[in-house]
Amino acid sequence: MRLRLYLDTSVLGALSDPGPLERIQATRQFFDGLAQGLWEGFVSPLVLEEVSRAPDRVKELIARELQRCSPSVLEESEESVTLARAYVEAGAIPVQYEDDARHIAVATVNDIKVIVSWNFRHMVNIDRKRWINSVNVREGYPLIDLVSPWEVRYEQG
Which CATH number does the domain housing residue 15 bear? Predict the structure, then answer.
């Protein structure tokens, strides 16, 4: 079974980044792997909404990549909204970054084990992972991993 990955908006946004070169290369390799079918990609309406606010040039670039990789769209649900609220209430995600909690919750309730993100401040860091997973355990959900494209690009599915 292929590894199921939730793509947070920062990964899509990195397609238009001016640098650093290593980040651009890792992002492109990640999307090449998705397009080749090494992994199964997922996004949510929240990702698409955030992308819609980008400049036209960036939106077009992301739209082409989404078409090439064909990620499935996971809907938000009452369950995911409740879990997102639990992340914020526990302090796992700051209230002003509630959308980050929504991304994590959508992936978690849909049994996606890995979120791929370039958001090191609120998602891909040791402290956040511990807080998020403590909420998941308390609420009866499995552990989830939050990683950067650097950590995924060598996974073979």
Answer: 3.40.50.1010
